[in-house]
Amino acid sequence: xxxxxxxxxxxxxxxxxxxxxxxxxxxxxxxxxxxxxxxxxxxxxxxxxxxxxxxxxxxxxxxxxxxxxxxxxxxxxxxxxxxxxxxxxxxxxxxxxxxxxxxxxxxxxxxxxxxxxxxxxxxxxxxxxxxxxxxxxxxxxxxxxxxxxxxxxxxxxxxxxxxxxxxxxxxxxxxxxxxxxxxxxxxxxxxxxxxxxxxxxxxxxxxxxxxxxxxxxxxxxxxxxxxxxxxxxxxxxxxxxxxxxxxxxxxxxxxxxxxxxxxxxxxxxxxxxxxxxxxxxxxxxxxxxxxxxxxxxxxxxxxxxxxxxxxxxxxxxxxxxxxxxxxxxxxxxxxxxxxxxxxxxxxxxxxxxxxxxxx
Length: 359
Ligand code: PMP
Known about the structure:
Blueprint: E1 28-30, E2 40-45, H1 55-69, E3 78-81, H2 85-97, E4 101-106, H3 111-119, E5 123-127, H4 132-147, E6 150-151, H5 158-175, E7 183-186, H6 192-204, E8 209-212, H7 220-223, H8 257-264, E9 270-271, H9 276-290, H10 296-311, E10 317-322, H11 344-351
Parallel strand pairs: 2-10, 3-4, 3-6, 4-5, 7-8, 7-10, 8-9
Antiparallel strand pairs: 1-2
Helix pairs in contact: 1-2, 1-5, 2-3, 5-6, 6-8, 9-10
The structure holds 4'-deoxy-4'-aminopyridoxal-5'-phosphate.
């Protein structure tokens, strides 16, 4: 659209029968102001999903696949261990489809996530922060076994990578049709995004370099130390390279089974660790310079994409995943530097005209 024309819209061309039908088809958006001039950068903004994150895809995939297989019974309670976005996605899908949901979550994750899940009607069981992701998972398993509930198993289920293979990857292939895509950048939480998307990129876009990231102070993949797992492929122990880090949703304290496929098949080309504070800085830069509102993991992925961009050949095209919305972090360190009341500069502005001043 040329800038001399007024903007118009013409609807989706369809009516939506179900909130779940609005999941996916997120836009790839050009980075105009932060990208170095010699490259073309895009972000895939997963916050356009109905509950604000990439995990809406996983939520609908787990529920619908197990509905079809009969593993999930009508009205059965769903239980899952989640640092937040999976819980919010599941809470949205379970509300719409009439399943009670119980989420176990370490008490270190942001208040917004807890309140959002409850707002959708889910119940929340907090676990001690010291017991990390492993504790959350064991609690969910205990509750499922004691009550005959359906355990969603986001870290082990095939439904996770499959939805990214069938949706996220297809969207990237379609949106970059007829165009080079030199680099695709992502982090991992469960590994669903990278395992699903890399299956397709390796086959259909073999020239696209896949860049994986993890927190600099929790380099589980980088350590080369294998993960011990139990008979269900769930982690048997916390990984020795784990340290608490500020990138919520990334790198739990174990290497997820869903991610293992990517590691075993070498379905990534480079592993670039990133310090958590850079995620905070770049999230803020994306908001201030591009008007793009993403959380810390989006900022961290973008920090890595910027490193890739600096070194990339002229004309390179780079796509970076932004997993969720920045609004999910209002009470977290991401917004710590943002004042609640007027700053000195704002008070001076207020005083610069006579009316309506605060006391
Ligand atoms: N960022 C955030 C904020 C997330 O919630 C998640 C999912 N846990 C990810 C990144 C990583 O996505 P995946 O689980 O597909 O690896």
